[in-house]
Every structure is written in C-alpha cells, then in structure tokens.
Specification:
This protein has 8 helices and 3 strands. The chain is mainly alpha-helical. The two termini are 12 Å apart. Helix content is 44%, strand content 10%. It has 2 domains: 61 residues, Helix Hairpins, CATH 1.10.287.990; 99 residues, Iron/manganese superoxide dismutase, C-terminal domain (minor pseudopilin epsh fold), CATH 3.55.40. Bound molecules: manganese (II) ion. Manganese (II) ion binds next to α1.
Length: 204
C-alpha cells in the first residue's frame, strides 16, 4: 500500500493532494475538498503529531502504529490520517478506469458475483452505519474481498485487512453538497473512483 505520509523527523507532514481541489466537482465540490482536505485532514495530522510526540510510537510507520497502539486519541488520529490518505488518493476526474478491470474485476466477480452487487452492498452498509465512520471494500489475509463498516476513525488495517476503497460517511464529507442525503452522495461517488488506484492496493 502506498503511504505518502513521510516522517520528517519532527513529525508527519500533509500528504499532497494529487489533483486540483476543483477536480472532483460536481460529485465533490471544490468547497468540500478545501474543507475536508485542507481543514479536517490537517487537524488529524496535527493531532496525530501531538499525540505521537515523545511516545514509544514516534518514528514508527502509520501501519505499525495502527496495529499496535492502544485505543485512544493516538490510534483515532492515526486511523483518520491513513483513512484520508487512501480516500483522497482513490478519486480522479472521469477517466478510462471508471470501473474495475483485470485482477480487481476478477476478485469482485469471485467474491460478490458482479460489480453491481458490490455497489449495492456498499451503499446499503453506508446507509445503515449509524453516526460517523467508514465503509470499506477491504481484503482479508486469505485474499477474499469483504465489506467492512468502521465506526469513527477505525480502519480495516486494525483487523489485519487491507483497505481498498473507502466511503467516508462522516457528515463533513458530504454535508455542503448533499446536506442530509448521504445515500445520494454515496451513489454519486462511483463516478469518480479511480479503479486503477484501488487495484494497486490489492494483494494478488
Ligand atoms: Mn473525512
């Protein structure tokens, strides 16, 4: 899994946004990207740096911290930093990779039957997740794909699963653009998923 957050020795820095803040509109507006990436993710990074400082976890990778840290603010913020790195990397303006291909397509067909069934199951999971959290398409150690609902800043990595495609159902991800219409937002996201990026996370 790619991990653009590098330890600088004095803390972790913000991952680069790999497209302009307007690139995902109208699915995700420029205002939402500016708030979500520029303010919310910045806060998670700042809090992560604050809580990791002068602990046994300082200098470890995000993956190590997420699998080893006890429940609490360090784990919560490490999880949210990782979740948001993966989140912002997995989108792109309309591209030719607008649906799963190759190995990922085969995995999806094997574990879900077809792409439409996967989409429906993720939409249902997002609709039924109470409060804030994430719905992930994730890969178990056995290789099997599954859908995992995570509360708040939890991440599939904590459960030894590889996160592939994540839906952020915190209201900050969609409230400006969709108000309370979470289900509509989740359906629209399929238009901007970069499936080549998602496939690059697959263990094959
Ligand atoms: Mn978020």
């Amino acid at each position: 899994m790619s991990n653009p957050v590098k330890s600088t020795g004095t803390g972790f820095s913000m991952p680069a946004l790999i497209y302009p803040t307007s690139a995902l509109a109208p699915t995700i507006s420029q205002a939402t990207v500016e708030l979500h990436y520029g303010k919310h993710l910045q806060t998670y990074v700042d809090n992560f740096n604050k809580y990791v400082a002068d602990t046994e976890f300082e200098g470890m990778s995000l993956r190590e911290i997420i699998t080893q840290a006890p429940p609490g603010p360090l784990l919560n913020n490490a999880g949210q930093v990782l979740n948001h790195i993966l989140y912002f990397e997995q989108f792109a303006p309309a591209s030719e990779y607008n649906k799963p291909r190759r190995n990922l397509k085969e995995f999806i067909h094997f574990d879900f039957g077809n792409f439409d069934t996967l989409k429906k199951r993720m939409e249902d999971a997002a609709a039924s997740l109470f409060g804030s959290g994430w719905v992930w398409l994730a890969q178990e150690e056995s290789g099997k794909l599954n859908i995992v609902s995570c509360a708040n800043g939890e991440t599939p990595l904590r459960h030894r699963m590889t996160p592939l495609y994540g839906i952020d159902v915190w209201e900050h991800a969609y409230y400006i653009d969709y108000q309370n219409r979470r289900a509509e937002h989740v359906k629209k996201l399929w238009d901007i998923v970069d499936w080549e990026m998602v496939e690059s996370r697959l263990n094959i």
